[in-house]
Structure formats: structure tokens, C-alpha cells
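User: Please fill in residues for this 198-position structure.
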């Protein structure tokens, strides 16, 4: 990674994190309600029976109610569990299951772990992002878990980044290892990216 790209990513992530932290609780709750409706619509669009999603932190776009409701609708939801080797294991969401702090402070399920190959069964992937640009490039938080996961899949289903509306940007800094996404889901819209390689 070139120093210029590295510095640009670091600065943009810091700005985006600061904006998220500045959001009021009421704004976060309203965004989570709207986001849930769009996530439900996307699942229905793909007739997805198995999906991946993530358990949001307090400052991320809220996914927890969506996950609980999806499980209640009979959808199998795979939640990521970080590993020290940079890959992701997966666990099936259980609203009654225990949640603990993962390697980097992300909430993760506790219980039976499925290996990285479990994702091959998914019809739709909903992944976290710091931002996404209008060409479908995703800016993650710098640890590479999802880029490695997407880059290693032989048959990748549609992949949507979950972000706030203000995090859909004209362009984000990118490197050769960064993986594009099919689209983005925000509290107000579902966006498809024409140039995405997925």
C-alpha cells in the first residue's frame, strides 16, 4: 500500500468515525428503523433464505433488530467471528444466544463456529463499511477481513455494504486488494453499482 493511499484512507476513516460519533441517539434510532425496512426489502428481492450480516456497534448503522426479525421470519443469518489469522468464521444467529466482544471490539456471537466455507451457502452478503463510492468500491476499517473473505470466494453472491447516506461518496481511496461490492443499503435507499465486478 502506498503511503499516499494509506494516509488518505486513515484520514477519511477518522473523519467518518467522528461523524458517526456525533450523531444523536434519536437520529441513530430513526436511521436503524428505516435501514431495517430497506434490508428486509433487499432480502425479499433476492428471495434469500441464508444471508450474512453483522451485529452493529452503537455507532454503526443499526442491524440488530433486522437480524432478530430475519431469524424470526425463518431466515438463516450467518454472523462473522474474527480470527487471529485475518479470516472470518461464522455462527448462526440466535436471538437468545450470548454475545461477546471480538478481537477488535466488534460484538460477536458465542457458540458453535462454522468455518469460512459456511459463507458458500449464503444467497446475500450484508457487510459493514466505513464508506462506499459510486463505482462500488468499499472502504473498510483497515483490517482486511471482508476483503480477504470476498477475494477468496469462488462463487460470490450479491454483496451490499451497509452505510449511512452521507457515507456514499463520489470516490474512496483504493488499493489492489480492495474488493468491490454489488451495492449499498442506507436508511433511505438501496443502490446498485453498475461498474461493480461482483
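Assistant: Residues filled in for all 198 positions:
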Amino acid at each position: 500500500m502506498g503511503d499516499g493511499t494509506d494516509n488518505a484512507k486513515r484520514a477519511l476513516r477518522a473523519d467518518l468515525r467522528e461523524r458517526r460519533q456525533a450523531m444523536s441517539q434519536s437520529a441513530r434510532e430513526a436511521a436503524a428503523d428505516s435501514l431495517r425496512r430497506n434490508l428486509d426489502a433487499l432480502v425479499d428481492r433476492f428471495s434469500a433464505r441464508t444471508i450474512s450480516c453483522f451485529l452493529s456497534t452503537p455507532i454503526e448503522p443499526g442491524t440488530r433488530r433486522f437480524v432478530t426479525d430475519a431469524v424470526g421470519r425463518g431466515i438463516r443469518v450467518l454472523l462473522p467471528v474474527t480470527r487471529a489469522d485475518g479470516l472470518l468464521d461464522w455462527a448462526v444467529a440466535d436471538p437468545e444466544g450470548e454475545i461477546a466482544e471480538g478481537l477488535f471490539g466488534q460484538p460477536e456471537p458465542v457458540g458453535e463456529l462454522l468455518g469460512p466455507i459456511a459463507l458458500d451457502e449464503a444467497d446475500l452478503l450484508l457487510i459493514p463499511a466505513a464508506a462506499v463510492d459510486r463505482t462500488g468500491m468499499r472502504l473498510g476499517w483497515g483490517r482486511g477481513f471482508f476483503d480477504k473473505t470476498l477475494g477468496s470466494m469462488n462463487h460470490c453472491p450479491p454483496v451490499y455494504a451497509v452505510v449511512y447516506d452521507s457515507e456514499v461518496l463520489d470516490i474512496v481511496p483504493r488499493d489492489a486488494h480492495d474488493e468491490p461490492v454489488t451495492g449499498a443499503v442506507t436508511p433511505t435507499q438501496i443502490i446498485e453499482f453498475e461498474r461493480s465486478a461482483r
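For context: The radius of gyration is 16 Å.
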